[in-house]
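Risk register update: the risk of archive-format incompatibility is retired. Evidence:
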Amino acid sequence: MPPNNKVRPVSSNTTTTTASESKSTKASSPPSTSASVNNQQNSLNNTVASNADTSSSYTTTTRSNYDNMSDSGDETGIKVVVRMRPFNDREMKLKAQPCITITKANREVLIKRKDKEDKKFYFDDVFDENSTQQEVYSSTGQRVLDRYVLGFNACIFAYGQTGSGKSWTMQGMKGNQEKEGIMSRFVRELFGYVEREKEKTDITIKASYLEIYNENILDLLNPHSGRVSYEIREDKVKGTYITNLIEKPITTDTELNEILDEGATRRTVGETKMNQESSRSHGILQICMEQVDKGDEDGFSYRSNKISLVDLAGSERQSATEATGDRLKEGAKINLSLSNLGNVINALVKKTNFVPYRNSKLTRLLKDSIGGNSYTLLVVCVSPADVNAEESLSTLYFADRAKQIKNKLKVSRGDPRLEKIAELLEIEKQLRARVLELETELSKYTTVPPPVQKSLATSSTAVGESISASQFAKIKNDMKGESKIVQTDPVQFADGKTYEPLDIENPQQPPKKQGCCCIQ
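Archived output:
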């Protein structure tokens, strides 16, 4: 996998921050004693690896079970895609051997471990070390974009061990269109949609870019972010949002790519033994879009939704990264937030009464995306090398659990009143379709009494204008499925009139009154 573009590199033991950020960094410093930090790091490493350590009691989803996990109604499972990168220089120097096999046709991932049982996993799509950026985007970003432009909230987030290729997959290489990541490609395709729809739809787009560093929120579009207080709030109309976060209006893909570049230059990275340019924070780009059909004076077509494009920091083992000082403290914070993310996913899979979203800022911001109302796609990145087998297995277990979560999708209107109006309009549409269905069914018969015809013609606004509802239901029930019906008794309708007996097969020749109704 080619290296990621360089962004604010720092030494292996010291995190460089701007003067305006120093206040925030100082406030977020972990415990000062190295002993407590090492104890915390070891504990967190055990938590991250616990899925692999307890694998004997966990059964992965089989191929047939996964095929049967189809979406139902407005519910859809989190989509999961796995990407394996090529061997890197470090792994080749260690003479590492391949331990993962990707089978594209079956969407299968097989991982081999020394002296342990092999494990198979199945996902929505899988990519080996030869996959291109465009191939990955077509299976991820394009799929999500198709739902996003319809008005659904959406999320794409990348998860994996440090150095597994997450930032390469999400960001790619600046200035090289062939090697662009999911973010840049999504931006270009989004504005392609805006251009195609401009004649019939008014579209407004805004964007924000933030990072969560040492459990502190920093605005990547604000050079003085360290001086600002940011709080996570929840609102019935806005959903989950952050106070004081800069949201820039966007009119072209060029402007949005400039925001990506601006955020990348401020994002915190550092060097470890596992990764020369390790992301030390979780980066979240949020794009908010408002749409309303032109000519819609009432605004009933209004949609307001957002997408979060998330590049998570990688899980770490101190023994592998050999991190010390600030790198070690950062790794502890990263593992803590990822551990909390895993706890949320486990709670949702087990359908417990309490889901610990509030245990970290990351899980609070992803609440709408995991178990909420978003169309969510998880990109899992893994190393092919056996020296990383346990970390890769832990990552695959995480992904296997995540794909079992169901989100309840709905078009986001941004206003509860518009949500209710849209709901009522949909009910009206369904009722009208049902009336048409009944009319078509009854039209199969040769003759229907005039009051019934009149009632059918006006049923969408005044069912029962000529007859009562119970009488209308009785007539439908009597007629349903019968090829020949002879009516020999008068029918008394709500208007007080009595209609003489009718032979529905031969209305010109009324049958003799026999005081009964016969099916011939």
